[in-house]
């Protein structure tokens, strides 16, 4: 496994590779790797000649300084995990390597995909994500890029960015990996105690109940039920719960089987945000 810290070193290596290998799979990450990330690497390895992962905690996608400071940093262990699954190349740039002197995000229009959910609760978050993923795509020029469905809004926004920029990249969405108790795997889970992790099973349990309830109850009734589950909850605060169309991410008021829909939830515990979603199919 090769590890590169600079764009120049990575590009030189990619130039050599591209003359002999045809497809490049890319998995951008912010490190603190877990099995969910590794499943993306495995998917890439199955479908590409060469797999590249990046590890970069992108400052412009954090709206709160504390959140950025607390983000888990486990580079040494991440590199061991990547080596063990035979990732070919890892790109670990510094902030100045990708942003020069001005650590600011560009402004994007994602056709409204950015307006609700994470977009309305984390100011500027998707401009930060768009900025860094665009930069990384321009450097790596992957054939296929892999993202987890846990961050479904991010996945749709990256698809939109690729479409608008005419990038020749296929964005592949991969299923969310879960802990035994159903909690969606996330780097932020490292910030939870064992007890909090156990209690967080409520998130996926609620999402599964929501799917069942869509067969007989209105969305208004379901929203009220979800909100009641978190009223007076000793640990979790509900930040949002919505059912939205997968393609537009616009919130819907009626369940429909014609256009795929998903239920989305965000809860906070001690300022740590946990998000999850589930497809609604009958
Ligand atoms: O999902 C993430 O880990 C990040 O948002 C990404 C896509 C690596 C961009 O920094």
What does this structure look like?
The chain is an alpha/beta fold. It contains 11 helices and 9 strands. The strands form 2 sheets. A 6-stranded parallel β-sheet has the order 1-4-3-2-5-6, sandwiched between helices. A 3-stranded antiparallel β-sheet has the order 7-8-9, covered by helices on one side. α2 links the parallel β2 and β3 (50-55). α7 (125-140) crosses α8. The longest helix is centred in the middle third of the chain and has 16 residues, at 125-140. The protein is globular and about 60 Å long. 35% of the residues are buried. It binds pantoate.
Key traits:
single chain, 282 residues, alpha/beta, Rossmann fold, Pantoate--beta-alanine Ligase, Chain: A,domain 2, 2 domains, 6-stranded parallel β-sheet, 3-stranded antiparallel β-sheet, 11 helices, 39% helix, 20% strand, globular, binds pantoate
Distinct ligands = pantoate
Task: Kindly report the spatial arrangement of strands forming the biggest sheet.
Answer: 1-4-3-2-5-6
Strand count:
9
* Main beta-sheet strand count, sense and barrel state: 6 strands, parallel
CATH domain class name of the largest domain: Alpha Beta
Low-confidence stretches: none
Number of helices: 11
Q: From the 3D coordinates, which CATH architecture of the largest domain would you assign? A: 3-Layer(aba) Sandwich
Which geometry do the CA atoms define? globular
β-strand amount: 15-25%
Tell me the domain tally.
2
Give the overall average pLDDT.
96
CATH superfamily of the largest domain: HUPs
Q: Level of helix content?
A: 25-40%
Order of helices and strands: EHEHEHHEHHHEHEHHHEEE
Category from helices, strands and their pairing: alpha/beta
The name of the CATH topology of the largest domain is: Rossmann fold
First-last Cα distance: 44 Å
Oligomerization state of this entry?
Answer: single chain
Gyration radius over CA: 19 Å
């Amino acid at each position: 496994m090769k590890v590169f810290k600079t764009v120049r070193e990575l590009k030189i290596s990619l130039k050599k590779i591209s003359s002999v290998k045809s497809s490049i799979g890319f998995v951008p990450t912010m490190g603190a790797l877990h099995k969910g990330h590794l499943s993306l690497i495995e998917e890439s390895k199955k479908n590409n000649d060469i797999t590249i992962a990046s590890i970069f905690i992108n400052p412009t996608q954090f709206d709160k300084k504390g959140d950025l400071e607390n983000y888990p940093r486990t580079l040494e262990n991440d590199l061991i995990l990547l080596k063990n699954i035979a990732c070919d190349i890892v790109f670990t740039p510094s902030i100045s390597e990708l942003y020069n002197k001005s650590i600011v995000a560009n402004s994007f229009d994602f056709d409204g995909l950015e307006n609700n959910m994470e977009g309305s609760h984390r100011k500027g978050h998707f401009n930060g994500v768009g900025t860094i993923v665009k930069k990384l795509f321009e450097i790596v020029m992957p054939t296929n890029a892999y993202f987890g469905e846990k961050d479904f809004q991010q996945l749709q926004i990256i698809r939109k960015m690729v479409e608008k920029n005419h990038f020749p990249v296929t964005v592949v969405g991969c299923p969310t990996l879960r802990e035994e108790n159903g909690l969606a795997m996330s780097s932020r889970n490292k910030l939870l105690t064992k007890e909090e992790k156990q209690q967080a099973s409520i998130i996926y349990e609620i999402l599964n109940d929501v799917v069942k309830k869509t067969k007989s109850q209105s969305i208004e009734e379901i929203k009220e039920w979800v909100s009641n589950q978190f009223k007076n909850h000793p640990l979790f605060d509900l930040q949002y719960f919505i059912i939205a169309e997968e393609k537009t991410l616009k919130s819907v008021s009626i369940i429909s089987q014609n256009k795929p829909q998903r239920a989305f939830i965000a809860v906070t515990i001690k300022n740590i945000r946990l998000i999850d979603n589930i497809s609604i199919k009958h």
